[in-house]
Amino acid sequence: MSAGAVLALIVGAAFAILLSSIADLRRAQLHEQRSAQVLTMANRLERLIIDMETGQRGFALTGQEQFLQPWHTAIAAYPRHVGTLDRLVADTPTQRARVRQIATAGSSYIDDYSKPLVEAARRDPSMPRTAAAVEGKRRVDAMRADFDALVAAEQSMAWAQQQRSNIAAARASAVGVAGLIVSVALIAAYSGYLTRAVAAPVRRVALTAGQLADGDLQARAPTGGVGEIGLLERCFNTMAATLARNRAELAASRSRIVTSADRARLRIERDLHDGIQQRLISLVLDLRAAQAALPQDRPEPGRQLDRLADGLGEAVDELREISRGIHPAILSEAGLGAALKALARRSAVPVELDVDVPHRLPEPVEVAAYYVVAEALANTAKHARATVATVRAHLPDEVLRLEVRDDGVGGAAAGQGTGLVGLTDRVEALGGTLTLLSPPVQGTTIRVDLPLSGAGPDTRIPASR
What we know:
- This protein is of the alpha+beta class and 465 residues long.
- Among the domains are: 175 residues; 120 residues, Heat Shock Protein 90 (2-Layer Sandwich), CATH 3.30.565.
- A 5-stranded mixed beta sheet has the order 1-2-3-5-4.
- The longest helix is centred in the middle third of the chain and has 67 residues.
- It is elongated.
């Protein structure tokens, strides 16, 4: 690239006049094309204004909606045509000022005159229209005068540019040497090729690598390079796709682990309820029956059986509490709303509930929400010294939004043994977010968003009792 640049500089310096002439011709050609486009677009805009005037006048005179068809079409097309004309004259300040004056006048004509006139004619077909027609003619004439000034200025600039083009062409004809022109063209083409084939692709890959480093695993480098450049692009995209796939697999694995653990807890809870708990209850009933069958003259065995029955009853209560901690049966049977109400009743701190969950949710979402509220209320009772806690659960836009707030001492942190680390892992495994706000002396707030879509299909296990 350096050798090509030096050679091009030498040849270009020797034939600067030729290159300048060619550049002038090119600019002249582009200006002529732009001038032609400007004149064409100005003509179209002027016709649109005339179509508006004709359509609204015909409607005002006849009251027939068919006359408004060109009016509607012109109003719809006017902003787009004005925008195109503004872009065409963007590099000419005086012309751009004229176009913007036309745009302002046209918008004022449409919004302040034409549309109100049509609406008034619809409301009162017999209204007098002489004054409105005079005002419309005045506005149209003013805009047409602006169009005439724009066209005249553009034609004047086009003529001046044409004169410069003629001078440049004459100068180029006097200086042209075919061999040198070919040399310069080849050098320029080679330099451009190197830029497009090497520098630009490498730059694009570097930019994409920056996006990937910032966490955008969907970033991909454009392909199409040749040789090693193409291989670099393809290898980079393969790497990015592998990273994205691995992250997706990791998220899915985390979700499966959480779901599997929840199902295991549910099975343990059911086994305890249907097995040991039922057996203990049966033993209590048998003891009570045996106690009732004892003779009245033997009180001591009766008292012993009574103590045994009370002990078994306490064991049953403890077992129920343990089962509820493993997996609450009410969550599987009645859903999140009922489970949160049960948590509120058992809480050592008074709880205000605001639950609006009108239907059952996917099982992983319900379980995660339950344990978030349970852990938050337990932390409130243990650490917050709060007088009241508030639990809110709502379901906007396929996202379960939870908020647990207390009026305690605040100052909570996720890494201080509060159990929030595990809750955060559970929530993030479902694609959700957990936010902890706990300024000192201002209470603690936990906010959780759980997307229903991130939990997969609702594969809830039916309750067995």
